[in-house]
Design brief:
Length: about 375
C-alpha cells in the first residue's frame, strides 16, 4: 500500500477539493497538504474554515497555469503526490464562454504535468514508485447514453458534447499520454454527478434547496427526465483515496453512486425531505415550487457509471444511498445558512443566475 507524505491538491477550495482536503486531514495524522486554488467563482476560503488539523494544511492563492509557482511549490514542499481537481466545471458557463475552460482544463493540466515530469522524472526527486499524479475527471467526456445503453465504463469511447466536456476529455488524453510517453506515474478517475456539503449554489441540488427555503421557483430544464448517476461527495473522496493507496499506475477508474433518478424525481425527493425537516414552512409542499424552463443547448439525456472495476480491484463501494445522502445534504444546508449567505454575496454568482435563467424565461 502506497504512503503519501506531502500532497499538492489543486482546486482544494472548491466543492469536491475542499471535501477531499477535510477527508485527508481526518484520514491520516502525518500527511501534509498544500492547497493551490485560484479562488475563481467556485472556490472560496469559506469552504476551508474550521479544518481538522489546520497546521498540516497550507493554502496558496495561485493559478495552476503559473509554471514558476507550481515548480516552486513542488520543491519547497517536497511534493510526492498531486491530486488535480482544479477545473472549470459548469456546462452552462462553458456554453456562455468556452475560453476559461480551454485555459484551465487543458493548459493548466499540461502545466502541472510538465512540472511533475521535471521534478519527479528528470531531477529524480523521489523513487519512481513513491510519486503519483491523480487526475480527477468526469463522466461527461463519454457523451450521453440512450435509454437501453449500458453504463459508462473505463473502456467507453470518448464523445464529449459540450465545451466543458471536450476540455476535460483533452486533459484526460494529456494525462494518459504523459504516462505512455514519459512514464509519469498517473491515475485517472471519471466520476458521476457529485452532491453534498460546500457545493456552489449554482449547481442543481444546492440551487433547489436554497430556492425552496426562500419560496422561489425551482427551475427544471425541459421535461426533467434527464438521468444522472448521483455520487455523494464523501464517497467520492474515499474512492480517490483508495486509488491513491492501491490503484494501479496508468489505470483509469469509473466512480459512480449507483443512483440514477431523473432530475425531476431528484428535485421532488429534495422537496419531500424539506417538507419533513420544515413542516411549518410557509412554502410546504415545496414540490409546488417546481417550474419547467426551456432546456439548455447540448444537454446530455442520460449518464450512468459501471463501478465494477473499482469495486473489484480496490474494494470500494458507495456508502450513501440516494435517500441518506440527500438527507445529509439538505440537513447540512439547513445548518449552514451563514455559508450560503457568504457565497451568494459574490457578484459573479448573481450575474450568472441572471444570465442563465433569465435567458430561459425564468427570473431567479
Amino acid at each position: 500500500m502506497r504512503t503519501m507524505k506531502n500532497i499538492l491538491v489543486t482546486g482544494g477550495a472548491g466543492f469536491i477539493g475542499a471535501n477531499f482536503v477535510r477527508f485527508l486531514l481526518e484520514q491520516s495524522a502525518e500527511t501534509r497538504i498544500v492547497n493551490l486554488d485560484a479562488l475563481t467563482y467556485a472556490g472560496s476560503l469559506e469552504n476551508l474554515k474550521d479544518l481538522p488539523s489546520p497546521e498540516r494544511h497550507t493554502f496558496v492563492h495561485g493559478n495552476i497555469c503559473d509554471r514558476q509557482l507550481v515548480d516552486h511549490l513542488l520543491r519547497a514542499h517536497q511534493i510526492d503526490t498531486i491530486v488535480h481537481f482544479a477545473a472549470e466545471t459548469h456546462v452552462d458557463r462553458s456554453i456562455q464562454d468556452p475560453g476559461p475552460f480551454i485555459q484551465t482544463n487543458i493548459v493548466g493540466t499540461y502545466t502541472l504535468l510538465e512540472a511533475a515530469r521535471q521534478y519527479w522524472l528528470v531531477e529524480k526527486a523521489f523513487p519512481h514508485h513513491a510519486v503519483r499524479f491523480h487526475h480527477v475527471s468526469t463522466d461527461e467526456v463519454f457523451g450521453a447514453l440512450k435509454p437501453g445503453d449500458p453504463p459508462f465504463s473505463e473502456t467507453t469511447p470518448y464523445a464529449p458534447n459540450s465545451p466543458y466536456a471536450a476540455s476535460k476529455a483533452a486533459s484526460d488524453h494529456l494525462v494518459r499520454a504523459y504516462y505512455h510517453t514519459f512514464g509519469l506515474p498517473v491515475t485517472i478517475s471519471n466520476c458521476s454527478n457529485n452532491y453534498g456539503p460546500f457545493q456552489f449554489p449554482e449547481k442543481l441540488l444546492p440551487l433547489m434547496i436554497t430556492n425552496a427555503l426562500e419560496g422561489k421557483p425551482l427551475p427544471i430544464y425541459g421535461d426533467g427526465q434527464q438521468i444522472r448517476d448521483w455520487l455523494y461527495v464523501g464517497d467520492h473522496c474515499e474512492a480517490i483515496y483508495r486509488i491513491l493507496e492501491k490503484g494501479a499506475v496508468g489505470e483509469t477508474y469509473a466512480i459512480g453512486g449507483n443512483n440514477q433518478p431523473t432530475n425531476l424525481m431528484l428535485v421532488e425527493t429534495v422537496c419531500a425531505i424539506l417538507d419533513e425537516e420544515m413542516p411549518d414552512s410557509p412554502h410546504t409542499p415545496h414540490k409546488a415550487l417546481i417550474q419547467h424552463v426551456p432546456d439548455r443547448p447540448g444537454h446530455d439525456r442520460r449518464y450512468a457509471m459501471d463501478i465494477t472495476k473499482i469495486s473489484g480491484e480496490l474494494g470500494w463501494q458507495p456508502r450513501q444511498g440516494l435517500g441518506s445522502g440527500l438527507a445529509k445534504t439538505v440537513q447540512w444546508y439547513l445548518a449552514n445558512q451563514a455559508w450560503i449567505a457568504a457565497i451568494r454575496q459574490q457578484q459573479d454568482y448573481q450575474r450568472w443566475l441572471e444570465q442563465n435563467y433569465q435567458k430561459r424565461g425564468h427570473k431567479p
